[in-house]
Structures are given as C-alpha cells and as structure tokens.
Amino acid sequence: KSQPQPLPLTGQMAAGAGVDGIHRMLSVIGADSRQPCPLLAYPYKTLGQISAKATDGGFVCSGGLIGEDRVLTAGHCVWDDRGSQGPFQDLSFSPAQWKKDGKVTAPLGKVEWDYVTLFEAYVDDPDGEGLAYDISVITLKRAVGKTLGYLGIRADTSPCKSSPLSLTLAGYPGDDPQYPIPGGWQGGCFYDTCMVNFSCAVSITNHSCDSYVGQSGAPMYDRENYVRAVHTLGVLPGFSTANGAITIQKFILDNVMGYWKDSNGFAPAPPGSIGSGLYY
Q1: Going by C-beta distance under 8 Å and a sequence separation of 6 or more, which residues neighbour residue 47?
Q2: What share of the chain has pLDDT > 70, as a percent?
Q3: DSSP assignment of 12-71, as one string?
Q4: What is the mean pLDDT of residues 70-95?
C-alpha cells in the first residue's frame, strides 16, 4: 500500500468571513488554565486567526507561521469535507491579531492565500484513516514572516521512544476565558502549556492542554519554539478523555519540506524572531 501523498490545491479568493459555523468541538479539561498571549511578543506574534466560509456558514481556525509566507494548520481548516468537497471560500489569515479592551486589532490585516497543500488521504477519508493526516500548509500572498518571525518545525527520528515533553498550544478560541460574552467569537489569542507523553511512533498525540472551538490548527510547540504537533481534536465522549493533535512525524515533515519550493531551496527554517518595532 502506497503512502498518502500531499495534494496541492490552488485558488484565488477574497479575504473575509463570518464566524457562525462549528466544525470541531475542542475541549477544556478540568479547570480552564488558558492565559492571554503576550501582546506582539515572539513566538505569539507568529500565530494568527484563519477565517473562511463553508456551505453551512463562516468559521474560524488557528495557524502558525513556519516561514516567511507559510502557515501550518489543520486540513479541516482549509478543506470543506462537509459540503463542497473543495477548498473553503474566503480563506484568509490574520497574523499577530490581538484583542484589548474588547477591540480586535489585526496589525497586518487579513492576508489572502495563494494556494494550500494537504494530504489526499485526508481528502478521501476525513473521518476515518485520514484523521491522521489532518494537516495542511497555506502559502500566503504576502511574506508577513519577514516582519513577525516564524516557528520552527521538528520531527523525531526512529527509534521512537515515549518521553514527557512540555508543549504550548496557542491560538484563537471562539470564546474568551477571561471575559465571556454569550454567543460571541472573541478574536483574542490564548495559550496553555501541558506535559505530553510524546512519541514519534504515534500519529495522533493525546494531550490535556485546554482549547475551544476556533483553536483547530493551532501549533503545539516545544520550549525551543519548534512545532511538534498540530491541534485537531477534542474530547470525544465514549471514545477519548483527552484532546488530540497530529504528531509531526518524519513522513509529515518530509512532505512539508518536499513542497517547500522557493528561491532558498527546501527547508522549514529554524525558529526566527524578526524585529517588528513598527507594531510595538
């Protein structure tokens, strides 16, 4: 059986979307320990809110810059597997977005996408075996990482051993754990850090970092600011008691690198904190 291969998709669509659709239920486990992301500080300024429009309404996801113009996120944040069976309409990325005193600010605006890349295995079976490939890369029309910096991305190689690893999950939930407003998608960045029993042999990493709808696609990165997993799943009653994230395995990383074709060659760069004094 051949291994699933990435499926490049292209398109040009206008930015902007509402946020009335729910596509993945993500979970707060126990007490809510999420904290607001420090304003425009690295690595939080590499994160952004993804907005899109599906056949059943608009919604939001999260993603993180892993290069000057590349955003790592979940496959279900870019591909409409419930409706059109194609890329979502009005897909955009608002990097370094924050909320203060109830006002949401996106210093670089909504950045349109050039194309997205995801696994055909996910497209073919998004609720079955394809769940292990629920990951995608968005190539943006603007290289905002030159201003904001970006996260690294890392995969362990075999032999795979289970070991405790501290990971931070940071993104844009559809609630505000500090100042909840009924029915409101808030637009602020929040993070939580948890210890994970991590192994490169497992395609989906279970974790207890708190999250909520809107944080699908959020990077889970280590203390050196390397992405090790991408958050995709919440607690499923009767099936799991933990949240879930796609592990960055060597096969995943090799395919991300294989489609990373620009003048600088093939490589997700190491973490880079580039000054953005204009926005401080």
Answers
A1: 37, 62, 63, 64, 65, 95, 96, 170, 171, 172, 189, 218, 219
A2: 75
A3: ------------------SS---EEPPTT-TTGGGEEEEEEEETTEEEEEEEEESSSSEE
A4: 87
DSSP state of 11: -
**Neighbouring C-alpha atoms within 13 Å toward the C-beta of 253:** 18
Please tell me the distance from the alpha carbon of residue 184 to that of residue 192, in angstroms, as a whole number. Answer: 21
Summarised one tens digit per residue, pLDDT across range 95-149 is 999 887 778 899 999 999 988 888 888 888 888 888 899 999 999 999 999 999 9
The model carries a pTM of: 0.82
| Confidence band, pLDDT 50/70/90 cuts, at residue 1 | very low
Q: What are phi and psi of 132, to 5 degrees?
A: -70, -10
Q: Rounding to the nearest 10 degrees, give the CA dihedral for residues 125, 158, 221, 92.
A: -30
How do beta strands 226-233 and 190-198 pair? unpaired
Cβ-based neighbour number of residue 240 at 10 Å = 14
136: three-class secondary structure by DSSP: strand
